[in-house]
Write a structure and sequence with these properties.
Structural class of chain A: alpha/beta
Number of strands of chain A: 70
Oligomer: heterodimer
Number of strands of chain B: 4
Largest sheet of chain B: 4 strands, parallel
Largest sheet of chain A: 5 strands, parallel
Distance between the termini of chain A: 71 Å
Helix content of chain A: 25-40%
Shape of chain A: elongated
Order of helices and strands of chain B: EHEHEHEHH
Radius of gyration of chain A: 42 Å
Strand order of the largest sheet of chain A: 5-2-1-33-44
Strand order of the largest sheet of chain B: 2-1-3-4
Radius of gyration of chain B: 15 Å
Helix content of chain B: 40-55%
Shape of chain B: globular
Largest interface: A-B, 64 and 61 residues
Chain lengths: 1486, 145
């Protein structure tokens, strides 16, 4: 704070985590004058609570509770949402932090996405649905859950799959496999064509390095990727060409520059194709008559049919490439001439010459060069062959020559090479196919001499080759002397390598090296400006796919060169780590399919294609084997499906820097990995689920739509066991602490399961039932009594599956014996763990963690971390339930806000609007805008017909349709139409008011119309989406809905909000720890507080506590609080005060208090004016008179009395040798049917203190359930280790106490052993619960706030409103709400101030709008409304008629409907308006 | 008029039933296109008058859909609605109109499937009952030109 004053602080707050805690903090702050940056690493806000079905103890639907908060967060002008974003670092100090965020790409533009789901429908990839805990599947493009906020899709991408990474040309094999898997061959071809312009060619002759890297190989065998490519070309060509006809770039868009490509092989054609598509004028020169290079003049036709090459090369040329054939550069045209005519040249001339073997006899007839031989044959000629042909060489060309010779009629074909069989360069499959056809192979033989007779060759003398390469790796074959053998042959074909013909470059300046063109590795630039090279001639292009890769690179360089861009920038490619197979995509069970081949004996006779490829069905099956390593296959089907162009596949991670004044960390928690507790068989037995999985099964939007079924067989389970404390209270699982929530959530799950299916018999195996929260015990009782949930206190020994039935047999220890029982399903109550990435977050935020991995916080300032200005909210503090989370989330907001109090309001956004048009005198002029929602509405509903229909409705002067009415341009159009047509009412027929009404109302305001002159018709969610099969009826319905909306809007009247001034002061009732904290917090926020207590001294229950649960001793806390209160000029203390009168409303309450005034004199009255009230009345300890001799025997004390006695060194205690304690005295009984929450820990704490002071003392604790929840579990363990004996008694079998001379004898039956236990004690301490203080009912009645059946104050909502009352402006905190610990009272008090600050921080409140209004002339003052209002708002005023303060009205309309005289109307929903809407439906339209 | 299909008005509270209808939409659950939703802040706003007015105007069926009991956003508005629906049903009986044409339902905002189910149930029920005698459009159809 002090530092913040030196430089002006920043009035915005960063909230990390957007579960219920983060949202609560964000909303509290945004409502009280701060700009909030709300960050979540998830795609939607909502956190864990969004996954829950119902919530305890009210069985409320979790999403219903949260939905409005989620929408509020999204729509709040002072909350900026950042999804999929993490905190990367924090610099600076409290008041002025600089934070760095890292945003992961969504690949979908959140602003543009309308969540129509068209993308999802076409996405071919299925993946595990994490939101449903893997119980269902989703697509690679998905929405996290149906109610996600922002309501937008995202894509999961893991990285580049190995197939694509390995492909030299970067072809997206996963993408086209995905398309083929869907039977979309044409689309598959489109994916291939992006990188491979020769799909049918590559599908046949590519050496497919992708297949060796394919991750499917780790499961069984790699995918047949190459064969799939061929299948795409075989079955998708026509469709592809139809969808992508080869059209040249239109003349107007073409560039002037001309580029020459020399060489029409795959490299040259790829370069030419890329360039021509970029608009360049490209000419390809080639020596052959047709394009294709080696494809037509090298590869034999039985491997690559000529028509395939022609089809694919012609398709490329048809894009506008000029092909000049039969032209040998250097002979038919000079290189200089080409250079002079073109702005750039690509040399892709290949290696057209075969190498010769200069051995004796090399000039003889019958020795031919392999490349020339193959070229002639491939071009369709029939070169003569001998009877017995010997091929020299072991590469692919040798195999080609051998098989070609066979087909040309050779009787015998032999292949000899220096390499050993395993060293041969030819691909294995080429060798195998040759062998199948009858070629004889002679590996490791090297030629020494041709044997010549006359002029003709008759054989070759060979020697055994011992090694091919020398130690340096140079070609240097070593032969075995004397191993000579003559291979007879009348024809020898040399296939020993290729050479270049670069004579035409002489004098050009293009440097060569060892017969190749020297190029830059990255850019393929030659030594001459504007000349590039690719393919074989660069030494990098030995295969077609490498040639293609070079072609792409050369084209890129040419384009950059001609466009004057940097040739190198961003091109260096780093080959990342190989992506392992994903665990989250389902695996198709089939094994690899092999490609059909023609019969070897048949096929060797002619040049027909030998490989027959896949048939369609096999191709689809094979494609489905893909495991989708990248998850998203980048097939881009979604891009085509999205009418809004919302896809952003190129998105990358972004860094965001923000300046904020304060930070709240609310990352939530993670759940224990149940596989680590092996004894329960999770992950092994199919019907063992975790509690969160079970929660999803229960959810009506879950994978089974709320049907409880067994994963093993889909059957309905009858006997369900819930096992508690899995990964909690277990040092072996590294979690000593209690997770605090599992007892309750298991009870809830058991109850809800029973509601879903009454046949279910739930059993809960537990150690202690820890239902310590408000109304929790009642809930457990109801589960037992009304739902028949069975609770078994036990230790689980094992869970085993019966493999036949998949049932589970549980062995457990209870009541002194081992039992066995069979269940249909087991649900593990998995414990709470620190949030995933807690350590990274702590490091980034610069805070410390505690020994359990949660944030280290101050017990008496529970949201404060070890770094000033950084606070923590929710379960990151410790495991806790939702009400506690909400409380401390608000507390964190209060702390962050008081730190920045002086800059409150600095950063908030105020918007100004044009002056509102007065439409009162105007006739009704309605404008109707009907949305097509892309095709979401328009594909079912006949939108033009609805528009036409709307035009004819009474009052409508304008109607039109738009593609997306919510888009910015459409909103602008609405504003324009309002002006043009002088509209004074607007109807939008599109989607739901829940998400879109604020947007359209805003448009009205911006156009100067009152925002209430608006109505929506939901023709998407309520019509097109749900009546897909009935387009005619859906259109009729859409018309009806529009008619109804028009009927109602005609009756709409402008509603105005009016200001009510706020007295920016708070009244705090109760001066205990909660009240003092609240008053101080109000003061720190910058406002005044009246702290009122009826006692003589402040302090309340805190005065009586001596020993801490953790941290500082309570007396020290008391002292510091009193000193701070005393020193704070903004806190005004009134002790011995009584509230005499209370009136007013939020913003301005008037409270009259009376104070003592002299001895016995009349009390002095003081009137306090304040804007809010915080009730902090506390709860004193119960006086257990009549229980266990209390009040009769001086040796019987209460727990607190014991604490006091120990602290003051009372001899009765310090000299005692034995102390007994009995729990639940005055708690959890018929009279006070609730748990007092703190007494277990207090007894344990006292027991430990006694043991510390006197280790030989015997200490006995008689208990029912030891409720040391959260981190307090440690004290319980320490007490047991210190020798404190814990004896559990049954609820119905309470201990008996007998007073004797020598002590008090306590007897009880111990539950676990089943034996009777009697102990003697010098002192008996009764853990007397907390009770609501006297006078609560009177106070509640004066404030008009409710109390519960136990006399505690009753909040608006147990789950999400734990500090709010139904009456606006009145808040509660402390034990008056329900019993609680000091730290809990503190954060609830701070939280209550945050809630109050939304009013305190404004100088005026804007009230009105949808509120009830009384017509005094009609009112008969019958009091019906006074009784009906759930908020006690209506009252009979001085005029004797009912009055409803707009500032207090919640707008439900209950009073309006109850009023017998119809004197009350709910504005915007008046009887007239609602009836018109209904009548409108049936009105006839002419 | 064999093509007759009922027209049913559903008064839905904003917090639960309307949300459930939205959810049914985003889950693409298909249900009969007979339901016309009138959204209200709370079913506590539904009075007997508007229920009868809907039937009088020609609705073949009417139902009120509010939050689950105990979950009302406005604490107890749905209980009020329940009472009024029960009362209005008695009135219908008295005037000789089938009380089954009117119903009260409770569901939470996450019960999209239940919303669709209710629409189905109500459509089937009213289809069985046939057109409301107060359905003038239908009567006109019967009389013919």
């Amino acid at each position: 704070m002090s530092r913040a004053k030196e430089t002006k602080a920043n009035g915005s707050v960063l909230v990390v985590g957007a579960g219920i805690a983060g949202m609560q903090s964000a909303l509290d702050l945004a409502e009280s004058g701060y700009l909030v940056h709300l960050v979540t690493d998830e795609p939607s806000i909502g956190g864990k609570m969004a996954q829950l079905d119902k919530t305890f103890p009210t069985n409320d639907c979790a999403m219903c509770l949260m939905g409005p908060k989620m929408t509020d967060c999204q729509n709040h002008p002072n909350i900026d949402l950042y999804t999929m974003t993490t905190l990367a670092g924090v610099e600076g100090e409290a008041g002025n932090f600089k934070v760095k965020l890292r945003a992961q790409p969504r690949y979908v533009d959140v602003e543009e996405c309308t969540a129509c789901g068209e993308c999802e429908a076409v996405c071919p990839v299925r993946a595990r649905d994490e939101f449903n805990e893997g119980l269902g599947e989703r697509r690679a493009i998905y929405k996290q859950f149906p109610q996600a906020v922002p309501n937008a899709y995202l894509i999961e991408k893991r990285g580049t799959p190995p197939c694509r990474q390995t492909c030299p040309a970067g072809c997206n094999a996963q993408g086209y496999a995905a398309m083929i898997g869907e039977g979309k061959f044409g689309d598959a071809l489109e994916v291939i064509e992006r990188r491979i312009p020769f799909p049918g060619i590559c599908g046949r002759i590519c050496h497919h390095p992708c297949e060796s890297e394919c991750n499917r190989g780790e499961i069984d065998e790699p995918l047949s990727i190459a064969a799939l490519k061929r299948a795409a070309a075989d079955y998708g060509w026509e469709e592809f060409v139809e969808n992508h006809p080869p059209t040249p770039v239109p003349e107007g868009e073409r560039r002037e520059e001309r580029v020459a490509v020399i060489g029409g092989g795959p490299a040259g054609l790829t370069a030419a194709f890329d360039l021509v598509r970029r608009g360049y004028r490209v000419t390809v020169y080639d020596a052959l008559p047709a394009p294709g290079g080696l494809l037509i003049g090298g590869i034999p036709r039985y491997r690559l049919p000529r028509e395939i090459v022609e089809r694919e090369t012609q398709y490329l040329l048809a894009h506008g490439i000029e092909f000049v054939g039969n032209t040998r550069v250097g002979e038919d045209i000079s290189f200089e001439e080409i250079r002079s005519k073109h702005a750039a040249v690509v040399l892709a001339v290949g290696l057209p010459r075969g190498r010769s073997l200069p051995l004796p006899g090399a000039e003889a007839e019958g020795i031919v060069e392999g490349l020339a031989f193959l070229r002639e044959a491939a071009l369709g000629g029939r070169p003569p062959v001998g009877e017995k042909v010997l091929i020299i060489g072991g590469g692919n060309a040798a195999m080609d020559a051998a098989r070609t010779a066979l087909r040309l009629g050779a009787a015998e074909v032999h292949v000899a090479c220096v390499e050993a069989r395993h060293e041969m360069l030819a691909h294995e499959w080429e060798i195998e196919e040759a062998l199948e056809e009858g070629v004889k192979l002679h590996p490791a033989w090297g030629p020494q001499e041709y044997i010549v007779e006359g002029e003709k060759v008759v054989g070759v003398r060979m020697q055994r080759c011992l090694s091919v390469f020398d130690a340096e790796g140079r070609f240097n074959p070593q032969y075995e002397p004397g191993s000579d053998r003559v291979f007879e042959a009348d024809m020898v074909i040399l296939c020993i390598g290729q050479a270049s013909e670069l004579g035409f470059l002489e004098g050009s300046g293009v440097e060569t090296s060892r017969g190749l063109i020297a190029v830059d590795e990255l850019t393929l630039a030659t030594s001459e400006d504007g000349i590039f090279a690719c393919g074989d001639i660069t030494g990098r292009g030995a295969s077609v796919v490498e040639a293609i890769a070079g072609g792409h690179e050369a084209a890129e360089s040419v384009a950059r060169y001609l466009e004057g861009r940097d040739l190198r920038e961003g091109r260096a490619k780093e080959k990342g780590e190989k992506l392992p197979p994903p665990e989250t995509t389902p695996r198709h069970p089939a094994g690899r399919h092999s490609v059909r081949m023609a019969d070897p004996a048949e096929r060797a006779r002619d040049f027909r294609e030998v490989s027959l490829g896949f048939d369609r069905e096999t191709a689809v099956e094979e494609a489905k084997r893909c495991v989708h390593c990248g998850i998203c296959s980048e097939c881009l089907q979604c891009e085509q499906a999205c009418e809004k162009n919302a896809l952003r596949h190129q998105d990358a991670e972004r860094e965001i820097e923000l300046e904020v004044g304060s930070i709240i960390l609310a990352p939530g928690y993670s759940l224990f990995d149940a596989e680590l507790a092996g004894e329960y068989g999770y992950g092994l037995y199919r019907n063992v689920l975790t509690s969160i999985e079970f929660e999803r099964l229960l959810s009506s939007s879950g994978p089974t739509k709320g049907e409880v079924v067994r994963p093993s067989d889909g059957a309905h389970p009858r006997r369900i066991a819930f096992i508690q404390c899995v990964g909690s209270r277990d040092v072996s699982c590294d979690a000593e602490y209690c997770s605090s929530i599992c007892c309750m959530y298991s009870t809830k799950e058991a109850v809800i399961a029973k509601e879903h299916d009454p046949d279910i018999e739930p059993t809960i195996f537990y150690l202690d039932v820890r239902s310590y929260g408000k109304k929790f015990d009642l809930y457990v009782q109801s589960a037992r009594e009304n739902y028949g949930v069975r609770y078994v206190r036990s230790m689980i020994s094992s869970v085993k599956e019966d493999p036949r039935t998949a049932n589970l047999i549980i062995r457990y220890y209870t009541d002194g014996e081992l039992r066995e029982e069979e269940f249909d399903m087991v649900v593990l109550a998995v414990g709470v763990r620190p949030p995933t990435g807690a350590e990274d977050l702590a490091r980034a935020a610069g805070i410390e963690l505690n020994e359990y991995g949660f944030a280290r916080t101050d017990p008496y300032d529970p949201t404060r971390t070890t770094r000033e200005g950084v606070f923590v909210a929710g379960a990151f503090q410790r495991p806790q339930d939702i009400p506690d989370t909400v409380m401390n989330a608000s507390a964190a907001a209060a702390r962050a806000s008081s730190l920045l109090a002086e800059v409150r309001g600095d950063m908030v956004r105020e918007k100004s609007y044009p002056e509102e048009r007065d439409v009162s005198g105007e006739e009704v002029r309605v404008g109707v805008f009907v949305c097509r929602c892309g095709i979401n509405i328009a594909s079912v509903v006949d939108v033009p017909a609805v528009v036409e229909y709307a035009r004819g409705l009474p009052g409508v002067v304008h109607a039109e349709e738009s593609v997306y009415t919510c888009s910015q341009d459409s909103l602008k159009k609405i504003r324009t139409r309002i002006q043009e047509h002088n509209l004074n009412r607007v109807v939008v027929a599109s989607c739901t008011i829940r998400t879109h009404q604020p947007l359209f109302r805003e448009a009205l305001r911006e156009a100067g119309l009152n925002q209430f002159l608006f109505e929506m018709a939901n023709i998407r969610d309520q019509c097109s989406w749900v009546h897909r099969d009935y387009p005619d009826l859906a259109t009729e319905k859409a018309k009806d809905l529009v008619k109804m909306a028009v009927s109602k809007v005609r009756e709409h009247r402008p509603l105005h909000l009016s200001p009510v001034p706020v007295v920016q002061k708070a009244l705090v009732i109760g001066g205990g720890v909660a009240g003092m904290t609240a008053a101080l917090e109000v003061a720190e926020q910058g406002y005044e507080a009246f702290l009122v207590d009826r006692e003589r001294e402040l302090g309340g229950m805190l005065r009586r506590l001596r020993f801490p649960v953790e941290g500082q001793a309570p007396p020290e806390l008391l002292e510091s609080l009193l000193a701070r209160v005393d020193a704070n000029p903004r806190v005004h203390v009134y002790t011995e005060a009584r509230i005499e009168d209370f009136s007013g409303h939020v913003g301005h309450f008037q409270t009259t208090i009376s104070l003592p005034h002299g001895e016995g004199g009349p009390r002095k009255l003081v009137q306090l004016d304040h804007g809010v009230v915080i009730v902090a009345t506390g709860a004193p300890e119960f006086r257990p008179d009549g229980h266990y001799l209390y009040g009769e025997d001086p040796r019987v004390l209460t727990g607190t009395e014991l604490e006091e006695a120990v602290a003051r060194g009372d001899a009765r205690v310090s000299e005692a040798t034995s102390v007994a304690m009995i729990q639940c005295v005055g708690s959890r009984d018929e009279e006070r049917n609730y748990c007092s929450r703190t007494c277990c820990t207090q007894s344990v704490k006292n027991a430990l203190e006694l043991k510390r002071r006197r280790p030989d003392m015997d200490v006995f604790v008689f208990y029912r359930d030891m409720r040391t929840y959260g981190f307090n579990e440690r004290l319980y363990r320490e007490a047991r280790e210190a020798g404190v004996l814990f004896i559990q008694f049954a609820d119905e079998d309470r201990p008996r106490v007998e007073a004797r001379e020598d002590g008090l004898y306590v007897a009880a039956r111990d539950l676990l052993s089943g034996r009777e236990v009697t102990v003697r004690a010098d002192i008996l301490a009764l853990a007397a619960g907390a009770v609501a203080p006297e006078g609560t009912a009177e106070l509640a009645s004066a404030l008009k706030v409710p109390v519960d059946e136990n006399g505690f104050l009753l909040e608006t909502h147990i789950k999400l409103g734990p500090m709010d009352f139904p009456s606006q402006g009145i808040f509660l905190c402390g034990s008056g709400h329900s019993p609680k610990f000091i730290s809990e009272a503190i954060y609830q008090a701070q939280g209550a101030v945050a809630r109050a600050a939304q009013f305190l921080s404004r100088d005026q409140l804007m009230v009105g709008g949808v509120v009830s209004v009384v017509d005094p002339d009609k009112c008969a003052a019958c009091l019906t409304c006074v009784r009906a209002c759930p908020y006690s708002v209506p009252f009979i005023n001085d005029d004797g008629v009912a009055e409803i303060e707009a500032v207090q009205c919640q707008g439900c309309g209950i009073c309006a409907s109850e009023c017998p005289a119809k004197a009350i109307q709910l504005q915007h929903y008046t009887d007239q308006q609602v009836r018109e809407k209904v009548r409108g439906l049936f009105a006839e339209v002419i | 008029m064999s093509e007759w299909t009922p027209k049913i008005v559903a008064f839905c509270c904003y917090y639960c039933a309307y949300s459930a209808a939205d959810l049914a939409g985003s889950m693409r659950l298909q249900y009969p296109p007979n339901i016309r939703v009138v959204e209200l802040p709370c079913t506590g706003k539904v009075d007997v008058g508007v229920l009868l007015a809907a039937l009088e105007a020609g609705a073949d069926g009417v139902y009120v859909a509010g939050c689950l009991e105990g979950d009302c956003h406005f604490l107890k508005g749905n209980f009020r609605a329940k009472q009024r629906v029960a009362y209005a049903k008695r009135l219908l009986e008295e005037i000789g109109l089938e009380p089954e044409r009117l119903e009260m339902y409770n569901l939470s905002g996450s019960m999209g499937p239940r919303f669709a189910e209710i629409a189905q149930e109500m459509t089937e029920r009213i289809t069985k009952l046939g057109p409301s005698p107060l359905n003038r459009q239908h009567r006109k159809g019967e009389v013919g030109p």
